[in-house]
Amino acid sequence: MLLVTGGAGFIGSNFVLDWFANCVEPVLNLDALTYAGNMQNLASLEKDKRHTFVRGNIADTSLVSELLSKYRPRAIVNFAAESHVDRSIHGPEDFIQTNIVGTYRLLEAVRLYWSGLSPDEREAFRFLHVSTDEVFGTLSSEDAAFCESTRYQPNSPYSASKAASDHLVRAYYHTYGVPVLTTNCSNNYGPFHFPEKLIPLVISNAVQGLPLPIYGDGLQIRDWLYVADHCTAIRRVLDAGTPGETYNIGGRSEKTNLDVVHTLCDILDEYRPKADGTSYRTQITFVKDRPGHDRRYAIDARKIQAELGWKPSETFESGIRKTVRWFLDNADWTRSVTDGSYRTWVEMQYG
Ligand code: NAD
Ligand code: TYD
Asked: How many Å apart are CA 223 and CA 143, to the nearest integer?
């Protein structure tokens, strides 16, 4: 079976659902259920015997070791992380604990488990670490996109903690021979995206008649990838990636934040026109910039395409329409995840 960590979060839950849509192999899902993890994302698997959920922390060595010896996974996909840049600016501690200490403890438990496998099992074993393009730092408009050999230059506590985890993963390959794979992906969007991040926040605020906050001048650029394409890429790397290698994953879809928000407003104007006839664009509000805000991210995904034959199947235009439709059809999901702690966060961040 497969051990997935962080499988109740945004990308992890999409991955688990996508896995069962494509594979028969069971999944053990280990997730601490922080504010970002939601069992509702996995509600459709409630009666599915292939899915076993355990609430727990990747930094809990005795729990992880117990699970490894009980379930004997042939591979691990590590999504568990603190993932929101703005939260890392307000309080880096959780990012250090989960992304660095947690990844280290998980690796250490995995190393001990892996050392006890038979030679064939050891060779076939994989530890796939899911990381981000933010470890590479920021680009100017003229710079070439990030490739796998771009040097690490993380700028936020979030990206610095992810960079540290990537280095630990690399060290466990070079020092101990654990067969690791690392993927560095650009910004994802799609179903179950927690509404603290730009795209779901804008959709949620728009339909409630609230301001749509744009940091600074809104001309920062992100390279957007529909989450289902990320899931396909991870499955492909797990199947055919070379241990010790890293793979960049991206959507070849660079957009300014302002473009993204304009697109969302235009789709909402079409799908759910406002009663007063005005556009959702009138709700756009420029707010104070994020400290240390990276200007541009862009991924050069030629390696994964050439070596593993992966490329995205959604364009931004098709993926964003599906996403808006999903959020309009699943307003209950957004309501149920935006509880008291979410409102406290919004109050602190946006005043
Ligand atoms: P998320 O915040 O939505 O989900 C993280 C999940 O991990 C949650 O379910 C949470 O409960 C769980 N978790 C947190 N700390 C844990 C711990 N100590 N032990 C066990 N579980 C824990 O994040 P996401 O957006 O789904 O991102 C998943 C991974 O992908 C992260 O590693 C992130 O760095 C990476 N990534 C995200 C993006 C993106 O655009 N969201 C892009 C590239 C890479
Ligand atoms: P986000 O979704 O937080 O992802 P990341 O910081 O990991 O790229 O933010 C995406 C972009 O949108 C980023 O440049 C910050 C910007 N942003 C806003 O302008 N307003 C907001 O309210 C949020 C949450 C983000």
From this structure: 14
Among residues 133, 196, 223, 294, the one annotated as catalytic is 133
In the DSSP assignment, the letter for residue 151 is P
Beta partners for residue 2, in sequence order: 27, 75
Choose the catalytic residue: 134, 254, 294, 300. 134
Q: How far is the CA of 113 from the centre of ligand 2 (A)?
A: 39
Q: Cα of 218 to ligand 2 centre, how many Å?
A: 9
Beta strand 284-287 pairing with 212-215:
parallel
280 is catalytic: no
* 58-95: pLDDT as tens digits: 999 999 999 999 999 999 999 999 999 999 999 999 99
Find the DSSP H helices in 254-315.
Answer: 257-271, 302-308
Ligand 1 within 6 A of CB of 5? yes
Neighbours of 90 (CB within 10 A): 11
Indicate the helix (H) or strand (E) that contains 27. strand 27-31
Structure tokens at 269: 């104007």
What domains can you pick out in the chain, each with its CATH number?
2-190+226-252+293-315+340-346 (3.40.50.720)
Picking from 97, 236, 119, 255, the residue whose alpha carbon sits closest to that of residue 187 is 255
Residue type, 194: F
State pLDDT tens for residues 253-264.
999 999 999 999
